[in-house]
Write a structure and sequence with these properties.
Elements (H helix, E strand, L loop, with lengths): L5 H27 L2 H8 L2 H34 L5 H13 L2 H12 L6 H6 L8 H25 L3 H9 L4 H12 L1 H16 L3 H6 L6 H12 L1 H26 L9
């Protein structure tokens, strides 16, 4: 019989507190809610609209983070240059800034007379109380997860494989999309999941920039203020269940993918 080390037992015990700390509030909230109230909210067009807006805007923010974050992540993974540490620090800043501060900063830039709000306004794109405002707020607070996860994936791809592909006549872009991306795809997908999850949960930055159209966290907050816990909790439970369901499905889909490691 295998003997369990005291250190293993200690670490498992301490780790279980961290897991329970996260699990207990969520499970308690879900189990204490009347299933009938949750089902009733599924028939509320305002609730469904807010959840759809949250999921849709989070998806658009994730796609934008992919388009602009992947090239940056690859550059950081493959190159050492002066100022690299500064850029990496900038990428992590949204994680540490209070989100109400983020909302005010974005409002300064994307307001109708802001440095970006004015030129976008001339082509008919408004950010105040509009869906683009929700998307930029979600993008700002969540893109760090995409860039950092993709960078770790690229760093685990052996550069010699790329060099071999180039010596065989493959161009840089073909090597990138044919060798590098497939070998780091798991990290990119995990980064995408984290980006989407962080985006859909954003509230502080969004409410300052775009109170309307309402996303689910804004609707939960509004109903909590106006009608109390009994009105807001079923929506919160519904949002948690949907997020868990999406997480489980995506995790099952990528569970068979092996993570490439150059070592």
């Amino acid at each position: 019989m295998r003997r369990i080390e005291y250190s293993t037992f200690f670490f498992a015990l301490m780790g279980s507190f961290a897991v329970l700390f996260i699990l207990i509030p969520l499970v308690t909230m879900i189990l204490s809610e009347d299933p009938g109230a949750v089902v009733a909210n599924l028939q509320d067009s305002e609730v469904l609209g807010s959840i759809f807006t949250s999921a849709y805007c989070a998806l658009i923010a994730t796609i934008i983070a992919l388009i602009f974050g992947i090239p940056l992540a690859y550059t950081l993974a493959r190159n050492d240059f002066k100022g690299k540490g500064f850029i990496e620090a900038i990428i992590d800043i949204p994680i540490v800034i209070p989100h109400t501060v983020t909302g005010i900063a974005l409002l300064t830039v994307f307001a109708p007379h802001g440095i970006l709000g004015m030129p976008f306004g001339k082509i008919g794109i408004s950010f105040i109380d509009a869906m683009p405002g929700i998307i930029v707020a979600m993008l700002f607070v969540s893109s760090s997860f995409m860039i950092n996860s993709a960078r770790e994936g690229f760093e685990n791809v052996d550069p010699r494989l790329e060099k071999v592909a180039r010596t065989l006549g493959s161009g840089n872009f073909r090597t990138f999309f044919g060798i590098t991306i497939p070998l780091s795809l798991r990290s990119i997908v995990v980064g995408s999941i984290m980006t989407w999850a962080r985006a859909i949960s954003e509230f502080g930055a969004v409410i300052i920039l775009a109170y309307y159209p309402m996303i689910a966290p804004t609707l939960i907050y509004t109903r909590f203020l106006n009608f109390g816990l009994s009105s807001s909790k079923p929506i919160a439970v519904l949002l948690i269940l949907i997020c868990i369901m999406v997480f489980v499905i995506v995790r099952l889909l990528i569970s068979g993918w092996k993570s490439y490691d150059k070592d």
